[in-house]
Amino acid sequence: EDKVVQSPLSLVVHEGDTVTLNCSYEVTNFRSLLWYKQEKKAPTFLFMLTSSGIEKKSGRLSSILDKKELFSILNITATQTGDSAIYLCAPLINAGGTSYGKLTFGQGTILTVHP
Amino acid sequence: GAVVSQHPSWVICKSGTSVKIECRSLDFQATTMFWYRQFPKQSLMLMATSNEGSKATYEQGVEKDKFLINHASLTLSTLTVTSAHPEDSSFYICSASLVNSNQPQHFGDGTRLSIL
Description:
The complex is a heterodimer of chains A (115) and B (116).
Chain A: E1 3-7, E2 10-14, E3 19-26, E4 30-38, E5 44-49, E6 56-58, E7 61-66, E8 71-76, E9 85-95, E10 98-103, E11 109-114
Parallel strand pairs in A: 2-11
Antiparallel strand pairs in A: 1-3, 3-8, 4-5, 4-9, 6-7, 7-8, 9-10, 9-11
Chain B: E1 4-7, E2 10-13, E3 19-25, E4 32-38, E5 45-51, E6 57-58, E7 67-73, E8 76-81, E9 90-97, E10 105-107, E11 111-115
Parallel strand pairs in B: 2-11
Antiparallel strand pairs in B: 1-3, 3-8, 4-5, 4-9, 5-6, 7-8, 9-10, 9-11
C-alpha cells in the first residue's frame, strides 16, 4: 500500500523564521513528487520534482528530492503571515487507466506564522 | 491558462437529496479528470479517475452507485452524490490533466457540501 508521511503535522513560528517541512514516501511506480499550498480552497501548485539532488526555487521557497532515501523537503525562508497554510506533498505515480498518473497526498503540515 | 471551474462552490441540502457537482476545463480539453474528497483537517483522498467517453475508475472503498461520475465531453465532468446523507458532507475537489503543462493536474476551487 502506498504511504506518504509528512512531518511535522503542525508548526507555529514567527515572521522572519525559516521552516523546513518534510515528506517521506513509499509508493510503487513513482514518477515525480509535488508540493502544494492549500489555504481555504483547492491546493495551489508549488513545485514538481523529478530528479534527485536538484533544488528548485521560487522566491523564498525551495525544495529538493532524494529518490534514494524516498524523501523530500520544502524550505521557506523569512516566513510571512501570508505563508500560513497547509502544505501538502504528493507523489505522482503511474497508474493504469490514465497516462497522466495519480497523486497520493500526504496528511499535510499546518503552518502558522505569527506577526 | 489552464483554468478549471467547479460549480457550485457551496451547497446545503436535506438528507436524501441527490447533488450534482460540475467540473469544467475552461480553456483546454481534458480527457482525464480526477475527483477528490477532503474531510476537515484531513488530506485529499482520490475518489475516482474520470475518462472522457468511458467509465470512471473508482478507488477502493468508494461506492460507484453512490458517487456517479459522467465525463461526456472533453471539457466537462460531473459528480453526482446520490441520496446524500450527513456523512457525505465534505469538501469535494476536481482536477483536470493537461498535456505538456508544468504540472500534472490543475485544480478547481472545490465544492463544500453540507447535508442536513
